[in-house]
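Checked the freezer inventory, then went back to the computational side. Two predictions to log before the end of the day. The first one is the construct we discussed on Monday; recording sequence and tokens without edits.
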Amino acid sequence: MAHLLIVDDEPSICELLEISFRKEGHKVEVATNGEAAKRLLASRIFDIVVSDICMPDMDGVELLRYCKEVSPSTTFILVTGVPTIDTAIHAVNFGADRYVIKGDRLLDELRPAVQQVAENLALKKEAGYLRREVRRLTGLDHMIGTSPKMREIFEMIETIAPQTSRVLITGESGTGKELVARAIHENSPRAKNPFITINCGAFPETLLESELFGYVKGAFTGANDNRRGLFHAAHGGTLFMDEVGNMSVTMQVKLYRVLQEGKVRPIGSTEETDVDVRVITATNKDLEKEIAEGRFREDLFYRLNVIPIHLPPLRERREDIPLLAREFLGRFAKSMAKKIDGITPEAMRRLEVYDWPGNVRELENTIERAIALESGNRISDEALPDRIRNHFQELIPHASHNGNGNALPAEGLNLEEHIQALERSYLLAALERTGGVRTQAAGILKMSYRSFRHYAKKYGV
């Protein structure tokens, strides 16, 4: 059912529409003037606004303009008792979805419009459910994000998954490199075969060799039986080698040979066997820098880096933080059997402004900790770690500096990044002062709501 806002300075009209649409199962709220309607529009989301044009404090066209700024997806229906061509043209120009004449048939005119919006909402919800099911079945259910960078990665996964080309995934620790590798595997023709993972940085050289290639009985002290390596275990499937930049140069030579020839020889054996394995590697190191400094082989790099995928750090896709936080909230609240169903606006602002050096993994741990400590029904800023609360408090004072006391650091600074940080901190300070109401924050910063929305999107606020 739809969420309606009825705006009319005649209480009898408000009462009639409220009772009628509530009986049909819709959620209805009422405002008897334009200012009250603006406050409601600033604080919540409505599917439909039904507003009279002629009101004493603010006409319906002005309210329409405001509604399209703060909630462009809301359907706006204008109602008038004195129809004129000029008014109709004005309404259409400002984006009114319907124009209804007030009279005895008002309810009959409004019912079909409201029903159509409700049906469209139901279809969108069903489509969203189907998209989530597809993502679950294709291994993308744990990869969350609507930011442009993440959408590009989702598209890349769908494009390269059917191929057999090797993939090198780069990015900081905690960005989800294994999730990308697993999604590629689950969307490939190899999905029914094994997906094997190994962290190359967790093994010394000799043990890593035996893990990858296996060994035969008697190959070394303690080799009491033949053992298959991970290349054999992943035959027909995918081998994901994480932290490949930590391999020794000697192991790099041996891996290069396997990739070049497609054959594996276990330690202590004289026989080679063919293996059919798609190799996906990942690293948080700059391999080109490692090559220049002699720590990584250039020939191996080009064998691995057929298709590169770079995962952005969380601070570069801040618009995904609320989605990720709510996903982790639902997961951990359920596992801990705690009735926590949300995050306060203050806590969310602190999560959004923090730089997350540990990326998604750090955010996940933070939400788990907050749920364990929270005694209320929503995560509050008091449940967040000190480093996150303190970071927010450090940013806000910068927004009140007049610039006269800012000395240039001895080590210099990145001017572009510094200016962007200041712009972002001003947005946050304005939102903090207005309790999160964007239109008021835009007024404090002496900018249009459209400009404010542009900067908010730019900085992921």
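The second is the one RB wanted added to the comparison set:
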Amino acid sequence: MGLLRVIDRDGVEHEVQGAYGQKIMEILRELDYGVTAICGGLCACATCHVHVDPEWRDKLPARQSDETELVSGTEEYVAEASRLSCQLDFTPALDGIRLRIVSQE
């Protein structure tokens, strides 16, 4: 188990425990303030969009073209920060990662 620092849509930061090996989306969709994840992690909807804090971005794999296409079409797109949490495996290297859940409004 590791720790994620999650800022919800209201700006409140939460410390959340998550199991290594899960997609970050799987951890976040279980939270009352988490992501919607309508497509279930198929990289097809962008309802698991998060902004990753700068100090963690270099530890993430590069975005693939389908992820880039989905996040770049959202109102909350930030080139450096926007990721789909369904495309991010939670590993020990990401223990303590800080991210903000993007509004789906």
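For RB: Helices lie at 24-28, 54-57, 65-72. The radius of gyration is 12 Å. Let me know if you want it refolded.
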